[in-house]
């Protein structure tokens, strides 16, 4: 092989296979290896036993090999075997090796004939072997037997492909000589993954069982159905020999005698037989490893670099070192505080692109959900006007009042302000829930120390709950402050003096109050945001599904919606070239719609308050979103456009019974005046509460929680229990650390060994291509005794020299 270093290649790969198999990483490196494939009873196990010179593989009818067996042969003076799953135990009796393989197979697959892709690692040390690594795979079958799954053929095929698809895997295709080579399952599957034949080596077994008068000379001479790496013939022990426990060394001598004495194989005897096959595989695997070394080295280096940062803290790791525990605790708490602040304040690293969370979700609660909850406080118009009427009469008492009483106005306003408490409390609850979720997400990084994670989550969550009470008290105090003094001198309040002038500007006679519906529509239109001259204010764009289009017209369909200050338009797609419809916002309102039994989407509807069709023959358009958060967000956007939710009790606005109110025109005028004043003042209070709610929550709850985490959390952790118990590692973390260190040292050792090997070693090149068109077109069976076809002999494969 040219130098001593090259002889270390196969043991090196064996070490890597052991190291990476034990930590579940072997699939990532694609280590060079030889996979043995073939049909059931093709003689694969016998070939491997001949290599070792011992009977150690399970025997029987049907499928015997049910898990991949990674067989590592190591040239050594002493003879024994070791299993990776039985570390430290040496098997000298090879009958025990067989029983251990059977027991380990049954442990994973059960006692039936099922299979599993989890490999068994067996290393055999012997003076009779050359360094070699092979994988014995289950034999291909066509029909399920016993209680095997019906798709056993596909399961085995998929397992074989897992191994032989890798470019680093040589394929040892075993085919019995007493079957038609053109129908070989092994060669067929090898051709699928290795069409150029660069990795396939043919092995012909059972040459001694061919019909009299026939031979496999053309196959072994690589004339019939040629392979680039050629074929090697072997003669295994018969079942009678195995049952009679014929010595394998005697069988190898009989094999040698068979090739020397057979007239058709005599000239090939030096290139046939198990010893030559073992030598050839050793040479080819060694050269194959040499060829894959550059790629293997780069993969090892990249994996080593990826582990460097994590392993750095573990290199001098001592689990019981109090200094390490103190340092780790400080780092964990500090990192928790940084993560919490980033999730609240926002950060450019580790951005969640799937859903809103942390500060972004709290922002939505402040500026979309809370305003919507305020607007949802529905004033029952009929009931409100009745209350105003009663209040005016009760203030006047026995007298008939000539002027609109401000005490009635204050009584009605205070009753409406009290209704703000419920949405305010609900807003705080939503923020609390999101804070708790944020704390839980941040503590996930502390999973290495379960007790620390639990204590941190408990302490911070308890603190947040304590601040919840103070925040709610403060918000309720703000509402009580609003109740304590009704400031009718507020600059935004229309006032008693201005109400008549405003009504005149709106075209309403001060002598007779107009209908409340007209007043509300005028008020709503005034509140609608007005864009600058010549431009349209776009409030929102996004995908929505129109849910109530009839099935005859194509059923529900998704469109691109654009909401402006004046209209709602929808287009075919986001390019906004093909407009489907534009709906003016005048007289529109929103109502909730229950989603259907089979529907997964959340639905709301837009309708016209004047009972007109909104779109074609539809009285309302049902719009569907993927989540309730999307629905709430769209509703908040419609609020900005001046489209409000419908009232819970929908009755015609002008259908109030005659006995509800006095027919006294003066009283009607006073009711209408106070009604407009209430609207104006409640608008001021809503604006104030909408401004103060986020500020109060941020100050008393969120900023306070951040300060607590940075300044007091560590002290609470120290006082909550013993530091040793807090910093006790989880079993998973300890195992992960050990595996990572093993992986790291295995990678370093592998790179060291690879670095010592001269890659300039002269090795035999891959054989030239041969005519392998037979693999694409299935060859017809040649009957016994038929004349051999005249085929030009290709150059002998140099690897078999």
Kindly describe this structure.
With 801 residues, this protein is of the alpha/beta class. The chain is built from 24 helices and 16 strands. It has helices spanning 4-7, 9-22, 26-29, 44-52, 94-109, 152-164, 185-193, 217-220, 239-243, 248-261, 274-312, 322-345, 359-375, 381-396, 406-418, 421-443, 450-484, 495-505, 516-527, 628-640, 665-711, 713-720, 723-726, 731-756, and strands at 33-38, 69-75, 80-83, 120-126, 132-136, 169-176, 200-205, 231-233, 538-546, 557-564, 567-571, 579-584, 588-593, 602-608, 620-625, 644-645. The strands form two sheets. The protein has an eight-stranded mixed beta sheet, sandwiched between helices. Strand 11 and strand 12 form a beta hairpin. Helix 14 packs across helix 15. The longest helix has 47 residues, at 665-711. The protein is elongated and about 140 Å long.
Secondary structure elements and pairings:
Elements: H1 4-7, H2 9-22, H3 26-29, E1 33-38, H4 44-52, E2 69-75, E3 80-83, H5 94-109, E4 120-126, E5 132-136, H6 152-164, E6 169-176, H7 185-193, E7 200-205, H8 217-220, E8 231-233, H9 239-243, H10 248-261, H11 274-312, H12 322-345, H13 359-375, H14 381-396, H15 406-418, H16 421-443, H17 450-484, H18 495-505, H19 516-527, E9 538-546, E10 557-564, E11 567-571, E12 579-584, E13 588-593, E14 602-608, E15 620-625, H20 628-640, E16 644-645, H21 665-711, H22 713-720, H23 723-726, H24 731-756
Parallel strand pairs: 1-5, 1-6, 2-4, 6-7, 7-8, 13-16
Antiparallel strand pairs: 2-5, 3-4, 9-10, 9-15, 10-11, 11-12, 13-14, 14-15
Helix pairs in contact: 2-24, 11-24, 12-16, 12-21, 13-16, 13-20, 13-21, 14-15, 14-21, 15-21, 16-17, 17-21, 17-22
Domain PH: 537-643
Membrane topology: Peripheral membrane protein
InterPro entries: Dynamin, Dynamin_GTPase, Dynamin_GTPase_CS, Dynamin_N, Dynamin_stalk, G_DYNAMIN_dom, GED, GED_dom
């Amino acid at each position: 092989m040219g130098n001593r270093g090259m002889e270390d290649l196969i043991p090196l790969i064996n070490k890597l296979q052991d190291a990476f198999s034990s930590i579940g990483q072997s699939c990532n490196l694609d280590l060079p290896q030889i996979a043995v494939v073939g049909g059931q009873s093709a003689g694969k196990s016998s070939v491997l036993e001949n290599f070792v010179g011992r009977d150690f593989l399970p025997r029987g009818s049907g499928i015997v090999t049910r898990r991949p067996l990674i067989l590592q042969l190591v040239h050594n003076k002493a003879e024994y075997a070791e299993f990776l799953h039985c570390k430290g135990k040496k098997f000298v009796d090879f009958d025990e090796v067989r029983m251990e393989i059977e027991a380990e197979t049954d442990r994973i697959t059960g006692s039936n004939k099922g299979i599993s892709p989890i490999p068994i690692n067996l290393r055999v040390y012997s003076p009779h072997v050359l360094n070699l690594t092979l994988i014995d795979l289950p034999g291909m079958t066509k029909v399920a037997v016993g209680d095997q799954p019906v798709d056993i053929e596909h399961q085995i095929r998929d397992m074989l492909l897992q191994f032989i698809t890798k470019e680093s895997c040589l394929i040892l295709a075993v085919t019995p000589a007493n079957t038609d080579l053109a129908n070989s399952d092994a060669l067929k599957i090898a051709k699928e993954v290795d069409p150029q034949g660069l990795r396939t080596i043919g092995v012909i077994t059972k040459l001694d069982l061919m019909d009299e008068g026939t031979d496999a000379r053309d196959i072994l001479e690589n004339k019939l159905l040629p392979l680039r790496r050629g074929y090697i013939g072997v003669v295994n022990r018969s079942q009678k020999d195995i049952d009679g426990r014929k010595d394998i060394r005697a069988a190898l001598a009989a094999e040698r005698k068979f090739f020397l004495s057979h007239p058709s194989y005599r000239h090939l005897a030096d290139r046939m037989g198990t010893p030559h096959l073992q030598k050839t595989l050793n040479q080819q695997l060694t050269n194959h490893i040499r060829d894959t070394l550059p790629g293997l080295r780069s993969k090892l280096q990249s994996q080593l670099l990826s582990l460097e940062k994590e392993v750095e803290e573990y290199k001098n790791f001592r689990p019981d070192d109090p200094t390490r525990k103190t340092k780790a605790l400080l780092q964990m708490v500090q990192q928790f505080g940084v993560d919490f602040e980033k999730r609240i304040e926002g950060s450019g690293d580790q951005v969640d692109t799937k859903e809103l969370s942390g500060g972004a979700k709290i922002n939505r609660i402040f500026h979309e959900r809370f305003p919507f909850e305020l607007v949802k406080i529905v004033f029952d118009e009929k009931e409100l006007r009745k209350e105003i009427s009663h209040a005016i009469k009760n203030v006047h008492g026995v007298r008939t009042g000539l002027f609109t009483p401000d005490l009635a106005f204050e009584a009605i306003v205070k009753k409406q302000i009290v209704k703000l408490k419920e949405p305010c409390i609900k807003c705080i609850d939503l923020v609390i829930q999101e804070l708790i979720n944020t704390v839980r997400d941040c503590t996930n990084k502390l999973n290495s120390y379960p007790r620390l994670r639990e204590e941190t989550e408990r302490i911070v969550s308890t603190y947040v709950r304590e601040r919840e009470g103070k925040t709610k008290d403060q918000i309720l105090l703000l509402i009580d402050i609003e109740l304590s003094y009704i400031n009718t001198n507020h600059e935004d309040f229309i006032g008693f003096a201005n109400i008549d002038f405003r009504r005149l500007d709106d075209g309403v006679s001060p002598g007779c109050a107009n209908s409340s519906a007209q007043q509300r529509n005028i008020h709503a239109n005034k509140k609608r945001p007005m864009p600058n001259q010549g431009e349209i204010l776009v409030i929102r764009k996004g995908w929505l599904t129109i849910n109530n289009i009839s099935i005859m017209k194509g059923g529900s369909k998704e469109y691109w919606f654009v909401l402006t200050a004046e209209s709602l338009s929808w287009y075919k797609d986001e390019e906004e070239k093909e407009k489907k419809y534009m709906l003016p916002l005048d007289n529109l309102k929103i109502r909730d719609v229950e989603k259907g039994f089979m529907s997964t989407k959340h639905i709301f509807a837009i309708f016209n308050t004047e009972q007109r069709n909104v779109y074609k023959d539809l009285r309302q358009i049902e719009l569907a979103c993927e989540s309730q958060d999307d629905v709430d967000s769209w509703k908040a956007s419609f609020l900005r456009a001046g489209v409000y939710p419908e009232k819970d009790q929908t009755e015609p606005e002008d259908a109030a019974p005659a006995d509800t109110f006095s027919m006294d025109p003066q009283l009607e005028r006073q009711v209408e005046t106070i009604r407009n004043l209430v609207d104006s003042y409640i608008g001021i209070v809503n604006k104030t509460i909408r401004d103060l709610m986020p500020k109060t929550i941020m100050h008393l709850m969120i900023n306070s929680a951040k300060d607590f985490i940075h300044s007091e959390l560590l002290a609470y952790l120290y006082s909550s229990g013993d530091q040793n118990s807090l910093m006790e590692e989880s079993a998973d973390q300890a195992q992960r650390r050990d595996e990572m260190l093993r992986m790291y040292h295995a990678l370093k050792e592998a790179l060291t060994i690879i670095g010592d090997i001269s890659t300039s070693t002269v090795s035999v090149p891959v054989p030239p291509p041969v005519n392998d068109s037979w693999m694409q077109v299935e060859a017809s069976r040649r009957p016994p005794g038929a004349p051999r076809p005249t085929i030009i002999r290709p150059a002998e494969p140099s690897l078999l020299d």
